[in-house]
Design goal:
Elements lengths: L1 H32 L2 H38 L6 H22 L1 H11 L2 H32 L2
Helix pairs in contact: 1-2, 1-5, 2-3, 2-4, 2-5, 3-5, 4-5
Length: 149
């Protein structure tokens, strides 16, 4: 079980920590220092790399979470905070899948075509979704730690 918890936490740290860094540090700096022809390719390349790690994190978090849930359900009543964590995690995964399939795909196409207006609009949709997911991820950390007390 400790190995599963470790894998679960590593996935959470990579995913939520990456969103925190991107939203709270990289985004403000890039918007101040770079014009769209530089900023949008930076975001496209950065997100391409980060989203690969997010897919790994999703597999780790959901895989370990569902496995631990199945183990727990066979021996005890599942605490309500675990249900809350599960629901938040599934919603976060759905939001990420939307970002990856829709606005990120538009961003990549717009950057390739040097269509900075369309790319900026796609990046704004990503920014809003990441803000929501970051809030949900931080809430899930609070639920996990407070619920386990």
């Amino acid at each position: 079980m400790k190995l599963l918890i470790m894998l679960h936490m590593l996935g959470v740290v990579v995913w939520v920590g990456g969103m925190f860094f991107a939203y709270m540090a990289l985004r403000p700096a890039a918007s101040i220092l770079l014009d769209p022809p530089q900023r949008l390719p930076l975001w496209s390349a950065t997100l391409q790399r980060f989203f690969g790690w997010v897919w790994v994190s999703v597999v780790l978090v959901l895989g370990s979470g569902f496995y631990m849930l199945s183990e727990l359900s066979s021996v005890a009543r599942i605490p309500s905070y675990v249900h809350v964590m599960l629901y938040i995690g599934v919603v976060m995964t759905m939001i990420f899948a939307y970002v990856y399939a829709a606005p990120f795909a538009v961003l990549k196409r717009a950057v390739a075509a040097k269509n900075w207006k369309e790319g900026g609009a796609a990046l704004n949709r990503i920014r809003i979704a990441v803000a929501v997911n970051l809030g949900l991820g931080l809430l899930n950390v609070v639920v996990a730690t407070a619920g386990a007390m």
